């Protein structure tokens, strides 16, 4: 267990350094797709990605506390392996995203499965240190995987820009609401999804009304699901 705790901390630090690999990255390059979509509607406004700073800090604190205080705790150890897989996939995504968007999208979908597994394996003990950082990561990756899929579907010409945004927002919402209801009193998961949906509203307001209104409605539904889960928790 201690070896996994040490490795998790090392990976959390490495994961937090991955933005240095692509300091100017602002989304998939439209030139890498058969169909050029200069402003994908499914992509949140740029400010929304600042949530990564909180996620990185939370994961490092999570791993550090786990190593120092819970290295041999089986409750903590259950989530370590899938969380490590998620961070490895996240680092791989950064390496692929600049010029291999389809491979990057497959990678982030694998990351999503790993992150959801990690949050489902996280216990309710150590309420401040164990669940929240993992749930925040899982919530944001839920939305990010949907955004990456939407950009890819439109870029490959399989759906129009608006249609891909609508399909992926609905898919994210379906998965996120189901996860939130299962997790119960874990508002960090839903908060990350709401943050992403509001970012889509901001990016599309006055430019793509159907996507903006759908994302706004989705944020309301997600917020309602989080409140319901908390009251039932």
List keywords for this structure.
233 residues; mainly alpha; 8 helices; 73% helix
What does this 3D model show about the protein?
By secondary structure, the protein is mainly α. The chain is 73% helix and 0% strand. The chain contains eight helices and no strands. Helix 5 packs antiparallel against helix 6, helix 6 packs parallel to helix 8 and helix 7 packs antiparallel against helix 8. The longest helix is centred in the middle third of the chain and has 25 residues. The chain is globular. The two termini are 30 Å apart. The mean pLDDT is 94.
Q: Enumerate how many helices there are, as a single number.
A: 8
For the secondary structure, the number of strands is: 0
Order of helices and strands: HHHHHHHH
Percent range for helical residues? over 70%
Structural class: mainly alpha
Radius of gyration: 17 Å
Strand content: under 5%
Largest sheet: none
Question: What is the CA–CA distance across the termini?
Answer: 30 Å
Mean pLDDT: 94
Which spans have pLDDT < 50 for at least 5 consecutive residues?
none
* Structural shape: globular
């Amino acid at each position: 267990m201690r070896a996994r705790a040490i490795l998790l901390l090392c990976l959390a630090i490495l994961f937090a350094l991955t933005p240095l690999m692509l300091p100017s990255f602002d989304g998939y390059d439209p030139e890498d797709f058969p169909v050029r979509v200069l402003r994908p509607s499914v992509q949140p406004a740029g400010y929304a990605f600042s949530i990564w700073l909180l996620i990185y800090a939370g994961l490092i604190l999570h791993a550090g506390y786990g190593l120092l205080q819970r290295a041999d705790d089986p409750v903590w150890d259950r989530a370590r392996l899938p969380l490590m897989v998620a961070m490895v996939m996240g680092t791989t995504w950064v390496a692929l995203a600049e010029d291999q968007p389809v491979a990057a999208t497959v990678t982030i979908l694998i990351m999503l499965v790993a992150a959801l597994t990690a949050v489902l394996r996280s216990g309710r003990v150590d309420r401040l240190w164990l669940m929240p950082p993992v749930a925040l990561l899982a919530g944001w990756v839920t939305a990010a995987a949907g955004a990456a899929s939407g950009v890819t579907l439109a870029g490959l010409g399989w759906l129009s820009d608006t249609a891909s945004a609508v399909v992926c927002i609905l898919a994210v919402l379906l998965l996120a609401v189901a996860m939130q209801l299962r997790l119960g009193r874990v508002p960090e998961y839903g908060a990350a999804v709401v943050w992403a949906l509001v970012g889509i509203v901001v990016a599309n307001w006055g430019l793509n009304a159907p996507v903006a209104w759908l994302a706004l409605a989705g944020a309301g539904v997600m917020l309602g699901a989080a409140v319901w889960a908390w009251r039932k928790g």
